Backbone:
């Protein structure tokens, strides 16, 4: 299916590690033209160099800043003249029980996991509408389908991404734009590093050590959605490790 990926212009947020990095490597191997965004520019530039991308295909991007997300998309347009896919992947997961009142963590999840996706959509829609084509891929989570103690705010942001993606799907149909929302289960990434409560982080780490699968699994799912012919719109994918019960 690589013939439907080769030559496509793909923007990825949160591309310096984890799911974003794995997806960048996977799509680059299939001929995609990548423009990568993340906060850690040094890591992003190292990845771009390893993938033999143009030097300016790595763009420092904090998705909580709408102007920076717009600049990332604008860079893709400047380099390649079009935007075929945006993967709104950046996210964090600072789990904690609500009673601990980690309000700063709650606000950060809303800013990154939800508003960051909205900023990506806002930046991508105008060029895709002009083209009458494009593909917006948003990242939710198994937590968006099933909440557990300690994950209430994270789950709420990911459930919001599900609803946002469905509304987007209905609105962009007249423009020939495809939409996909992907809900991964326990997949290895740096999400655990965003947990600020030591006891919660330890519990999540033990769970991931038991069941988590590699980030390449997510990359293959993204490639599957992108590689479909233009008339096929894969709207939602929920996947877990085989060993993950919940």
Residues:
């Amino acid at each position: 299916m690589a013939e439907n990926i080769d030559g496509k212009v793909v923007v990825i947020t949160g591309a310096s590690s984890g799911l974003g990095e794995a997806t960048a490597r996977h799509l680059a191997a299939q001929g995609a033209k990548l423009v990568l965004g993340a906060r850690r520019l040094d890591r992003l530039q190292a990845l771009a160099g390893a993938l033999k991308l143009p030097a300016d295909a790595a763009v420092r991007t904090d998705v909580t800043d709408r102007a920076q997300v717009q600049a990332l998309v604008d860079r893709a347009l400047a380099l390649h003249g079009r935007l075929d896919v945006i993967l709104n992947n950046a996210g964090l997961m600072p789990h904690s029980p609500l009673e601990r009142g980690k309000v700063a963590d709650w606000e950060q999840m809303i800013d990154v996991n939800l508003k960051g996706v909205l900023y990506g959509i806002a930046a991508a829609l105008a060029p895709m509408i002009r083209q009458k084509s494009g593909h917006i891929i948003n990242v939710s989570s198994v937590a968006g389908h099933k909440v557990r103690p300690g994950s209430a705010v994270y789950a709420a942001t990911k459930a919001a991404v599900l609803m946002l993606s469905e509304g987007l799907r209905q609105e962009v149909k007249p423009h020939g734009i495809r939409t996909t929302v992907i809900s991964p289960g326990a997949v290895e990434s740096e999400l655990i590093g965003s947990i600020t409560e030591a006891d919660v982080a330890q519990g999540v780490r033990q769970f991931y050590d038991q069941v988590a699968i590699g980030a390449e699994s997510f990359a293959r799912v993204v490639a599957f959605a992108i590689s479909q012919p233009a008339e096929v719109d894969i709207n939602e994918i929920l996947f877990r490790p085989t060993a993950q019960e919940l």
In short: The chain has one domain: 2-238. Residues 4 and 227 are 5 Å apart (CA to CA).
